[in-house]
Amino acid sequence: MKERRKHFLINKPLQFRYMAYFTSALIIISAIALVSLYIGIWSSILESFSDARLRNDLLLASRLTEYEQARFPAASVAAPAESPSILSFFKQTEKLSRHQREIFKMILDESNQKLMFKLALLLFFIAWASIYISHKIAGPLYRFHVTLGDIEKGDLTTRIHLRKFDEALFLAEQFNRAIEKLDRTMSQLKNIMRENEANPQRAATRLKEELSKIKTSADS
Amino acid sequence: MLPLQGLFAYEPDARDVQLLSKIEQDSIQYFVRMSDKVTGLTRDSSQAGSPASIAATGFALAAVAIGQSRGWIPKEQAYAQIKKTLRTLLSKADQKKGFFYHFLDPRSGKRVWGSEVSSIDTTLLVAGALLAGQYYPGTEIEAMAKKVYARIDWQWMMNNSSLVCMGWKPESGFLPYYWNSYNEHLLLQALAIGSPTHPIPAEAWNAWTRNEDVYRDKDIVYSYTGCLFTYQYAQAYIDFRELDDRGINYFDNSVNASIANWEYSSENRDQYKSYGGNLWGLSASLGPAGYKAYGAKPGQGLHDGTIAPHSALSSINFTPERSIAAAHLFFNQYQDRLYDHFGFKDAFNLDKNWWAEEYLGIDQGITVLMLENYLNHGAVWNKFMQLLPVQFWIKRCNLLKVKSADLEIQPMSFMSSSDTSDSRAAPPSRQ
Fold first, then answer.
1. Which class for B105: exposed (0-12), middle (13-18), buried (19 or more C-beta within 10 A)?
2. One domain, residues B236 and B279
3. Beta carbon pairs, A and B, within 8 Å
């Protein structure tokens, strides 16, 4: 049967802290992306299509059409000096429409470039933050791994030392207390042997007395 | 180079020189103020939101170099502006086969307004760049200008025809218009035929028609519109005085066309009070009904009483007396409405009491170059005519009036040369 978790908040401070880390990172990323999009696209669009710019663009469309008519003889026949022809009007409209597409493309290209730059910065920030946050867990895990290795080799004097803001600080303290207790017990056994080298009978009695305090697999 | 002394029939007095110098100096300021601080690209006009025009940018390269040689722009500032413009052209500005789009975004150098890749505007750009290179021989500027020029694939712009096309668009390909008759494209022909990298055949020089007509006893090879600028642009850079195109001397032709332009407006003085006496100058310009290809006969001769001061002024090498008289009249009588920080505004029409509020880059540019030639002993002509590609064009088209002995010109050597004469240092000012 599958074991189901009954309580998801088993360590509220720790879990809430990590929730805050991830949520704030997401909020920062979203805020930067949204502000960039707004500044990059909407403000440029609003500026490019302001009344003054539109007026200038209309005049320029008209001017550039007149340039073409002045330069290309076939076009100038269609445009007498005084009255602009319907053809001129359509050419101006075509130019203006083309120019507006160019403006949109330019705005989007510029915004994309700016976004790419910001995205690269964000990726760097996220990578750095991931390493920093994961180190708070990976660091203690490593210390536990090394210390347990020492114990496996028979060194009971080893202890776990963690940084102030590392996760599992309480666990390390509890672990240190346990290993200290074990260290003291083993030291006591060694002392009994050392003090009663001349009297093995007494040493055996003392050892038996001390070992009876320890629960092991051999007891069952 | 031919001596320039005594070529102008009219000798300007100190008052003339003072006014003309002021106009030249003020007009140059357009190119300092209207060029983008980052890219160097120059706005087409002083109207808000105006795109950069590559022709105006070419005039800017020339004008800034001239301004520095005259001591009107600090050397470091001029050098930096020209260098950044050329760098933009080489690395940032949208182009196709070395030809640039007519209008670019001044800040990004991207094509705007769906404009065409323009052969004549690229020509005006590269002519300005090459001239700037002549003002700074042996520098990065000269090398970069040559690179911009060498990149242009003039053969491609012929679109497998015998003529040079006016332009190309990515959406529709080559425009249905070709440089098929006399116009400002003589400069294009010179640079295309003389190209060290992608020259067009010399036969292209003979492929376009020289339409001739007589106006008031003057036989003129005319442009379709009759706009005065069509007789001026090529001659801002090229000294046509000693060139002969099978009996046609284009300098003399422009003298006649300028006189005809003056006469045409005089002829219509009863119709329009803008015309008559020293009020003249019919050329493509702004007008009460927008930008029009105003001009005189022979040609279309479209006019509505609008005078473009820059056009009368830019004929100064052809009709010095009439042009200087017009300059004094425009300045003294209409200064308040017509003259501002950058010299004369584009145009006016007395009949409709209409006054342009704007400056156009190309109109400021032609004013500067023509005045510089006039006031400074043909300084622009001297430098431009020394370019190997120009000499190569003259040789290939057999245009020298006095045919010289065998002049061996290797156009490719242009790319590595920092050529030719020591007269390339800024010539002394007339003042």
1. buried
2. yes
3. 67
Burial category of B146 from C-beta neighbours within 10 Å (exposed 0-12, middle 13-18, buried 19 and up): buried
- CB-based burial label for A160 (10 Å; 0-12, 13-18, 19+): buried
Chain B environment of A53 (Cβ under 8 Å): 49
Q: For residue A102, give the chain B residue with the closest CA.
A: B112
Chain B residues closer than 8 Å to A56 by CB: 47-49
My answer on whether B163 and B274 are in the same domain is: no
**B12 occurs within a structural domain:** no
Q: Is B357 exposed, middle or buried (0-12, 13-18, 19+ CB in 10 A)?
A: exposed
Alpha helices in B222-280 (DSSP H): 233-237, 250-267
Query: How many Cβ atoms from other residues are within 10 Å of residue A119's Cβ?
Result: 15
What is Dmax (Cα atoms) for chain B? Answer: 59
Cβ contact, residue pair B112, A81, below 8 Å: no
Tally of domains in chain B:
2
What is the domain-level CATH number for residue B129? 1.50.10.140
Q: Do B240 and B160 share a structural domain?
A: no
Query: Tokens representing A25?
Result: 């990172």
Range of the domain at B125: 36-209+387-421
Tell me, yes or no, whether B2 lies in a domain.
no
Which of B49, B112, B290 faces A66 most closely, judged by CB atoms? B290
B298 and B406 assigned to the same domain? no
What residue type is assigned to position B204 of the chain? A
Tell me the C-alpha to C-alpha distance, in Å, between residue A163 and each of A140, A157, B54, B68, B118.
9, 20, 66, 68, 70
The reply to whether B29 falls in a domain is: no
**Which H or E run includes B168?**
strand B167-169
Q: Are residues B190 and B260 in the same domain?
A: no
Q: Count Cα atoms within 13 angstroms, Cβ side, for B349.
A: 21
The residue of chain A nearest to residue B116, with distances taken between CA atoms, is A68
* One domain for residues B266 and B306: yes
Residues B225 and B363 in one domain: yes
Per-residue pLDDT tens digits of chain B, which is 431 residues long: 333 444 556 889 999 999 999 999 999 999 999 999 999 999 999 999 999 999 999 999 999 999 999 999 999 999 999 999 999 999 999 999 999 999 999 999 999 999 999 999 999 999 999 999 999 999 999 999 999 999 999 999 999 999 999 999 999 999 999 999 999 999 999 999 999 999 999 999 999 999 999 999 999 999 999 999 999 999 999 999 999 999 999 999 999 999 999 999 999 999 999 998 899 999 999 999 999 999 999 999 999 999 999 999 999 999 999 999 999 999 999 999 999 999 999 999 999 999 999 999 999 999 999 999 999 999 999 999 999 999 999 999 999 877 655 556 666 667 765 544 433 333 333 33
b/e burial code for range B223-235 (CB count within 10 A of at least 16 → b): bbbbbbbbbbbbb
Verify that B272 and B306 share a domain, yes or no. yes
- Structure token pair of residue B7: 């070529």
Tell whether B304 is covered by a domain: yes
